[in-house]
């Protein structure tokens, strides 16, 4: 199976709703995939201003960043 090159943007919105929001915009979007019920992943190549505009379209439904495991974080 081919893996599309690009960055992934996770949103809390169904794939069909994401496609509707993106209709006619572009912004380097390669593919929209479903990531479960009510979630989608946008595979894109947007950088700079286009990336900021793409994020602005989905600002209200963007998945919050998960905290990364760092040296300061302790795991029990």
As a percent range, the share of helical residues equals 10-25%
User: How much strand content do the residues show?
Assistant: 15-25%
Shape: globular
Radius of gyration: 14 Å
The low-confidence runs, each spanning 5 or more residues with pLDDT under 50, are 66-71
Q: Give the number of helices.
A: 2
How many strands, what sense, and barrel or not for the largest sheet? 3 strands, antiparallel
Average pLDDT number: 83
User: What are the secondary-structure elements, in order, as H or E?
Assistant: EHEEH
N-C termini distance:
38 Å
Strand arrangement within the widest β-sheet reads 1-3-2
How many strand units?
3
Strand-pairing-aware structural class: alpha+beta
Topology:
Elements: E1 7-11, H1 15-22, E2 29-34, E3 40-44, H2 48-57
Antiparallel strand pairs: 1-3, 2-3
Explain this structure to me?
With 76 residues, the protein is of the alpha+beta class. It is 24% helix and 21% strand. The protein has two helices and three strands. It has helices at 15-22, 48-57, and strands spanning 7-11, 29-34, 40-44. It has a three-stranded antiparallel beta sheet with strand order 1-3-2, with helices on one face. The longest helix has 10 residues, at 48-57. The protein starts with 6 loop residues before the first strand and ends in a 19-residue tail after the last helix.
């Amino acid at each position: 199976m081919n893996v599309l090159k690009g960055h992934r943007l996770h949103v809390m919105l169904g794939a069909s709703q994401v496609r509707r929001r993106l209709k006619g915009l572009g912004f380097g979007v390669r593919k929209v995939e479903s990531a479960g019920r009510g979630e989608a992943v946008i595979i894109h190549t947007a950088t700079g201003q286009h990336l900021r505009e793409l994020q602005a379209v989905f600002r209200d439904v963007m998945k919050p960043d998960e905290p990364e495991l760092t040296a300061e974080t302790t795991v029990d």
